């Protein structure tokens, strides 16, 4: 089903005209109402009136998460708080959350766009849609919730976690659609098998998965285990959350809601524009957002765009699945984690040495985050309760910074192999060591990514 054919199937020339009009409006809106954007545009010597064509977007300064962090919580907003009806947040590279805000109009647009994405995937009235994204500060749960409701499907707002309850509701209600991260879908299937649930006989027919990369292999495994068709949808909090793009039933890329978003793909090193079909960093400008317009936002996500018409009838450009990022952000059980956040916590711990290894493994189909930490001799005592208390206090500190429980393993000084050869500099100045080439999500419990940070010290 095409939720809004008027826009989703618009002639591209008319779409581009609409984009230009909206780009001009957004640029003026941001310049006039956001102290941050006015300062940045003044610095760059560009005024809203200089935007005369879509290509002129390149005259505007690039922004990224650091701008949101520096102005946190509300410094980039273009509306006063009494016109902001909702805030969400996403974890930032330093552990400082990035706060985003929505006006009443923004919530309405967001709902429209998530409705489009859900309808494109195949959600229909009559579907029972079980939500397994968290209802909290992150955008996954609430964003898709309203779009699904708008379609007229029945939403089951179960939220994240409590897997047993998810399974029993799926059986009792006859849930037809699951909304979650792909890794949670696999985890759920595995837990169902362990609990003796006849998973293939569940009524699930469709999965709306997003929030993290999903390999073809993982997708095939989810489809086989849960007996559903898996679709991918993409988004990021800074731009709005889910609703940026989603796969249609042709499964040939993710249609981007271009009437509300202007996309560029640039060379991540030089920020020079790349042609259609070339993979580069996705840069997004919002065209209709009121509370927090973002101009030329560097997503750090790598993708390529394809404007060719799609068999579904939509004319909206398709982006290829995001498999990699330009930075070292890791996504663990749907939570964004930067090695720099972990490093910042460990650096404060007395008795910890500056060598550690982050291991992300797949255990029982769920990402497992382990932090192996070299500690001083004094910590490695024979007194078990003391070591356990130390371990737990590190895990607690990591949890409060990351919003995620990591298992902590203490190792003797020198036990962690020092990074060599493939070490890369990360934003925090630490060295990241990636083992085994391109990280690939697998379900066999193989190490997905191993980062050895800090080759110095
Ligand atoms: O993950 C929003 C979202 C929730 C999208 C639910 C889809 C479904 P953030 O927490 O701000 O927002 O994380 C955004 O996650 O820049 C990508 O690196 C990654 N990401 C999101 N969707 C996908 C996807 C939400 N389908 C960051 N494939 C983005 C690959 C994805 N990566």
Low-confidence stretches: 420-457
- Distance from N terminus to C terminus (CA atoms, Å) equals 58 Å
CATH architecture of the largest domain: 3-Layer(aba) Sandwich
Main sheet, how many strands, which sense, barrel? 9 strands, mixed
The largest beta-sheet arranges its strands as: 4-3-5-6-7-8-9-14-13
Arithmetic mean pLDDT: 89
Sheet-strand content, in percent, reads 15-25%
The distinct bound ligands, ions and cofactors come out as: 5'-O-[hydroxy(phenylacetyl)phosphoryl]adenosine
- The helix fraction, in percent, is 25-40%
CATH fold category name of the largest domain: Rossmann fold
Polypeptide structure, described:
The chain has 457 residues and is an alpha+beta fold. It folds into two domains: 1-51 and 59-255 and 287-294 and 306-320, 3-Layer(aba) Sandwich (Rossmann fold); 330-456, GMP Synthetase, Chain A, domain 3. Helices cover 30% and strands 25% of the residues. A hairpin with a 2-residue loop joins strand 17 (352-363) and strand 18. Helix 5 (104-121) crosses helix 6 (140-151), helix 8 (182-194) runs parallel beside helix 9 (216-226) and helix 10 packs across helix 11. The longest helix is centred in the N-terminal third of the chain and has 22 residues, at 12-33. The protein binds 5'-O-[hydroxy(phenylacetyl)phosphoryl]adenosine. 5'-O-[hydroxy(phenylacetyl)phosphoryl]adenosine (DLL) binds at residues 90, 133, 138-140, 210-213, 232-237, 241-242, 299, 301, 322, 325, 331, 336.
């Amino acid at each position: 089903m095409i939720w809004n054919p008027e826009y989703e199937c618009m002639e591209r020339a008319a779409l581009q005209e609409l984009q230009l009009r909206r780009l001009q409006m957004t640029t003026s809106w941001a310049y006039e109402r956001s102290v941050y954007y006015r300062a940045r545009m003044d610095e760059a010597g560009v005024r809203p009136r200089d935007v005369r064509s879509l290509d002129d977007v390149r005259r505007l300064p690039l922004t990224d998460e650091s701008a949101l962090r520096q102005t946190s919580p509300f410094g980039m907003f273009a509306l006063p708080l009494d016109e902001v009806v909702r805030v969400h947040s996403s974890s930032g590279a330093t552990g400082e959350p990035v706060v985003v805000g929505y006006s009443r109009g923004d919530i309405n647009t967001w709902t429209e766009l998530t409705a489009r994405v859900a309808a494109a995937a195949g959600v229909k009235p009559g579907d029972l849609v079980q939500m397994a994204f968290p209802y909290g500060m992150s955008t996954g749960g609430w964003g898709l919730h309203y779009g699904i409701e708008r379609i007229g499907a029945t939403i089951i707002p179960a939220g994240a976690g409590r897997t047993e309850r998810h399974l029993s509701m799926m059986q009792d209600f006859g849930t037809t659609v699951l909304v979650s991260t792909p890794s949670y879908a696999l985890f759920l299937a595995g837990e169902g098998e362990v609990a003796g649930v006849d998973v293939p006989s569940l009524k699930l027919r469709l999965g709306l998965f997003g929030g993290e990369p999903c390999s073809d292999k993982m997708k095939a495994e989810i489809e086989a285990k849960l007996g559903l068709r898996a679709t991918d949808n993409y988004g990021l909090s800074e731009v709005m959350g889910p609703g940026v793009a989603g796969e249609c039933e042709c499964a040939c890329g993710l249609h981007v809601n271009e009437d509300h978003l202007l996309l560029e793909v640039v060379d991540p090193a030089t920020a020079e524009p790349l042609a259609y079909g070339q993979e580069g960093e996705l840069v997004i400008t919002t065209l209709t957002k009121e509370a927090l317009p973002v101009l030329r936002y560097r997503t750090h996500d790598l993708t390529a765009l394809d404007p060719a018409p799609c068999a579904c009838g939509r004319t909206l450009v398709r982006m290829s699945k995001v498999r990699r990022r330009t930075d070292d952000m890791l996504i663990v059980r749907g939570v964004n984690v930067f090695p720099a956040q972990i490093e910042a916590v460990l650096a404060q711990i007395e008795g910890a040495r500056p060598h550690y290894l982050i291991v992300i493994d797949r255990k029982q189909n769920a990402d497992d985050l382990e932090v192996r930490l070299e500690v001083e001799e004094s910590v490695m005592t024979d007194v078990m309760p003391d070591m356990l208390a130390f371990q737990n206090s590190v895990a607690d500190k990591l949890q409060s910074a990351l919003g995620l429980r990591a298992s902590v393993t203490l190792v003797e000084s020198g036990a962690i192999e020092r990074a060599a050869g493939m070490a890369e500099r990360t934003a925090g100045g630490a060295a990241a060591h990636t083992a085994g080439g391109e990280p690939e999500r697998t379900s066999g419990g193989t190490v997905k990514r191993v980062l050895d940070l800090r080759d110095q010290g």
